């Protein structure tokens, strides 16, 4: 779909025009080498497959501050004036950036878009004012909202959690915020609504009733679901797992934990998962593992595309450039039939040392090219007869009559014993890991 570039009263990136596809031979750092939005891959365009989104928080708020020092970047949209004046400048810069980069989607937290007010009512009003501006800019440009969410972790009141806070008054404030963020998401036609359990977890078991907190968490999600549906939200609710940071332990630890929780509470009809690459590695898994667990459960919703740093194990939220990760992720997404409501949101930030305004463009261009290349290679993998056959062949024995009866629950343990007694020692079957890994490299550079 063609989108129209948006420039507000002031142009924030005057040196940069719309980023174009120039192909692999180009040496222009401000051009796509692989991401060609209208190019067809297996019957769909790259734009339709990848559904890229830019996040509001890192991109327009990320100053480069870390626990050891303040920010290193001053952005031109940090204008003088009150918080609403600044919010108006920031939204113009954001839509200029989205449309110059030419991504179809964006994502935000309520507090990224509009400042908290002195009361619940004032916070609601601030958000409504900014949502009206976002709506105008969406209509003018053709941009869409991939997901909205509420920031339930920055304000000091949430230090002991939001939905799982031991104080009902804090839980109620979290409810007020989610209600307003759902209103905003619906008003802007958002296709998903995300819950990242920021401080839903604990630091100390001695002071925490984990059973109560998990029940409260499920109850809170039910209330949000019911309210969202009552105001016409037809999209997908998403839970974003993360094992730790900021809390020592977070309840949405990893994909399998969240899937079990959703099923236990009967929430799996409305909720799916938003998998972030860096959270997968923090949990001791690979990005691909987390995606596969979701696909197996029919619950893959969307992706936060980034990567961690293998040396330090923090949530460093770097831009995704590792081709093995991008290929493996896209192969799993493609094999599952592709994104429905989901997409690839760059929940990624510049390094503290990256202080030029154009670095924001360079970083996103790199991530988009990496996933475009990943998509093309993944398409080869999914269609590759060798890869498909080797995996399928390993399970061939279950196609037998006995195998079918085992899978459908018609065999007892004694039946297995009798089969084993008659069969003797099975012939060993190689797992063929090296052949498969070699094949992946062959396809990557084919
Ligand atoms: C933080 C999370 C957060 C969510 C949205 O680690 O990634 O940014 O994606 O609240
Ligand atoms: Ca995220
Ligand atoms: Ca993260």
TrEMBL record:
Residues 424-446 are annotated as: Disordered. Its EC number is 5.3.1.5. The active site is at residues 109, 112. One of its GO terms (biological process) is D-xylose metabolic process. It is found in: Cytoplasm. Keywords: Carbohydrate metabolism, Cytoplasm, Isomerase, Magnesium, Metal-binding, Xylose metabolism. Its cofactor is Mg(2+). It comes from the Bacteria. Mg(2+) 1 binds at residues 240, 276, 304, 347. GO terms for cellular component: cytoplasm. SUPFAM superfamilies: Xylose isomerase-like. Belongs to the xylose isomerase family. Homotetramer. PANTHER family: PTHR48408, XYLOSE ISOMERASE. This is Xylose isomerase. It comes from Sulfidibacter corallicola. The gene is xylA.
């Amino acid at each position: 779909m063609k989108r129209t570039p948006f420039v507000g009263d002031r142009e924030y990136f005057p040196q940069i025009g719309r980023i174009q596809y120039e192909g692999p031979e180009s040496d222009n750092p401000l051009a796509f080498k692989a991401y060609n939005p209208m190019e067809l891959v297996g019957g769909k365009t790259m734009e339709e497959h990848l559904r890229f989104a830019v996040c509001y928080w890192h991109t327009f708020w990320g100053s480069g501050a870390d626990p050891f020092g303040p920010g290193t970047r001053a952005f031109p949209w940090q204008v003088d004036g009150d918080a609403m004046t600044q919010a108006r400048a920031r939204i113009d810069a954001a839509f200029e950036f989205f449309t110059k980069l030419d991504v179809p989607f964006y994502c935000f937290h309520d507090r990224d878009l509009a400042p908290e007010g002195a009361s619940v009512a004032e916070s609601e009003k601030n958000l409504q004012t900014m949502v009206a501006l976002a709506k105008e800019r969406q209509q003018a440009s053709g941009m869409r909202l991939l997901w909205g969410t509420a920031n339930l972790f920055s304000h000091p009141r949430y230090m002991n959690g939001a939905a799982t806070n031991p104080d009902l008054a804090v839980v109620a404030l979290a409810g007020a915020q989610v209600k307003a963020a759902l209103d905003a998401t619906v008003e802007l036609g958002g296709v998903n609504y995300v819950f990242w359990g920021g401080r839903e977890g604990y630091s100390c078991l001695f002071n925490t009733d984990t059973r109560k907190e998990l029940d409260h968490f499920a109850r809170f999600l039910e209330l949000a679901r019911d309210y969202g549906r009552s105001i016409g939200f037809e999209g997908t609710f998403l839970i974003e797992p993360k094992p730790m940071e900021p809390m020592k332990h977070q309840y949405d630890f990893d994909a399998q934990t969240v899937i079990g929780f959703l099923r236990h509470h009967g929430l799996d009809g409305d909720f799916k998962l938003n998998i972030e690459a860096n959270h997968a590695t923090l949990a001791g898994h690979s990005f691909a593992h987390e995606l596969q667990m979701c696909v197996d459960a029919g619950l893959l919703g969307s992706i936060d595309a980034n990567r961690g740093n293998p040396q330090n194990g923090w949530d460093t939220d770097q831009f995704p450039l590792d081709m093995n990760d991008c290929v493996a992720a896209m192969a799993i997404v493609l094999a599952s039939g592709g994104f429905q409501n989901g997409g690839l949101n760059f929940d990624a930030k510049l390094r503290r040392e990256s202080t030029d305004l154009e670095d924001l463009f360079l970083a996103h261009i790199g991530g988009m090219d990496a996933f475009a290349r990943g998509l093309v290679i993944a398409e080869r993998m999914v269609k590759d007869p060798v890869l498909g056959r080797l995996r399928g062949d390993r399970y061939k024995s279950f196609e037998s009559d006995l195998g079918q009866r085992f899978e459908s629950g018609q065999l007892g343990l004694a039946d297995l014993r009798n089969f084993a007694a008659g069969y003797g020692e099975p012939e060993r079957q190689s797992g063929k890991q090296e052949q498969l890994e070699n094949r992946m490299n062959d396809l990557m550079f084919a």
